[in-house]
Amino acid sequence: MSVTVRVLVRRNDLPLTEERVRDFAGELVGWIGDLVYRVSQEEVPVDQDVLRPSAEIVKTGDLSLEVRYDARNVSGHNYGFYQEYGTRHHPAQPYLVPAAFRAAEQVPDEAQRIYGRLG
Amino acid sequence: MARTVDPVVEAQRWLLTTLTADAAVTASAVGTRIGSAPANRSWSYPFLVYQHLPRGKDLRVVNGVVLLHDLTFLVKAVGTDFDRLVLEPTTVAVFNALHNTFGVTANAQIVACTHERPISYPEFTESQQFVHLGAEYRILVKPND
Question: What is the 8-class DSSP label of residue B2?
Answer without folding.
Answer: -
